Amino acid sequence: MNHIQKLLFITVLLSSSVAFGQLTEDPDERRDQGRDPLRTQTPEGRPLPFGQRLRFGGGINGFRFGNPFSLGISPVVAYQATEHMIVGIGGSYTYTRYKAYTNTGSTVPYLTYNQYGGRGFVMYEFIPSILPNLYLHGEIESTTIQQTENQTGRTAAFALTSPLLGLTYSQPISRRFGVNLTALYNLNYSNNAVASLIYSSPFVLRLSFF
Known about the structure:
The protein is an alpha+beta fold and 210 residues long. It is built from 4 helices and 8 strands; from the N terminus they run αααβββββββαβ.
């Protein structure tokens, strides 16, 4: 058998092996190729362990430079309860400083705010076949603000509990991490001094990562 015949024989043998492998491949595996991984199960259909359903993340909130200066953080721990439901808890801390001008034109610290909060939330992907990754979002948030007058040292504290409802769109980066844009409406908003310190509007927008 010359070299050309040997090459043709090997090519036919390899082609037959590939074709046989494609025909005998597990039909379930072939059918699921290209699909997103399940959020609560392994590819074999076994439930994921508790730790592999957890998500960790958060965001930066109240970010402002100048007068006032404000910066906050909001860590989040979330749990993939079902394929379409996420439950979680979060905390927040925001530091805000206002400055006032004196008669000489210099600036001195005037008011300092330390804002602490905690929240529990539920997200439900309600129309995954039409708009995947769009969630109904509901939460209860409790916030406390400690106000300090820097010149006098006098302090005061305010507290507010806010139920919020709205939507979250989550852009997945991996099975356990995504970028989340949330729009909520504060059902307990009122245009009084305490509420205005926490939220300047009944509408709340957030960008978070978990």
